[in-house]
Design a protein that fits this description.
The chain is α+β, with helices and mostly antiparallel strands. It has one domain: Immunoglobulin-like (Sandwich), CATH 2.60.40. The chain is 15% helix and 50% strand. The protein contains 1 helix and 9 strands. The protein has one helix at 2-20, and strands at 32-36, 39-46, 49-56, 59-60, 67-74, 77-85, 90-94, 103-111, 114-121. Strands 1, 2, 3, 4, 5, 6, 7, 8 and 9 form a 9-stranded antiparallel β-sheet that branches. Strand 2 (39-46) and strand 3 (49-56) form a beta hairpin. The longest helix is centred in the N-terminal third of the chain and has 19 residues, at 2-20. It is globular. The N and C termini lie far apart (56 Å). Residues 1-21 form the signal peptide. Keywords: Signal.
Length: 123
């Protein structure tokens, strides 16, 4: 009986360790990764805006029905741009500048019927 109980406890502890091990994805495009609603969002500053790549458990997510608004705070300056699908798992916001030191907030709609807010600090 003790052996059976020990084996059960060991088995359950291994299962819980596997669940804990799942975390934020690693950057695949040289950006900053944050997680929200079981998805990983990678913000990549670009010359005329920013791209956000969406990863669902290490697989590219379907962003064709996603959209939203990107807000960038550069010191006291605030700018906003619409977020639109750009093919694959990429969302894009154009007409803004994401510089070092910026605080960025992405409000993304269409994520499993909800709006998800993701915050980034550009270093």
């Amino acid at each position: 009986m003790k052996k059976l109980l020990s084996a059960a406890v060991l088995g359950l502890s291994l299962i819980s360790m596997n669940a804990i091990a799942h975390g934020t994805a690693k950057p695949q495009h040289g950006g900053i990764v944050q997680s929200a609603s079981d998805l990983s969002f990678e913000l990549v500053p670009q010359a005329n805006g920013a791209a956000i790549y969406v990863i669902d458990h290490d697989d590219p997510a379907d962003v064709s029905k996603m959209g939203g608004k990107l807000t960038v705070l550069n010191g006291a300056e605030k700018s906003e741009a619409d977020i639109k699908p750009a093919g694959g798992n990429k969302l894009e916001a154009t007409g803004i500048k994401v510089a070092k030191g910026s605080k960025v907030v992405a409000a993304i709609t269409g994520v499993e019927g909800q709006t998800v807010t993701v915050r980034f600090s550009v270093k």
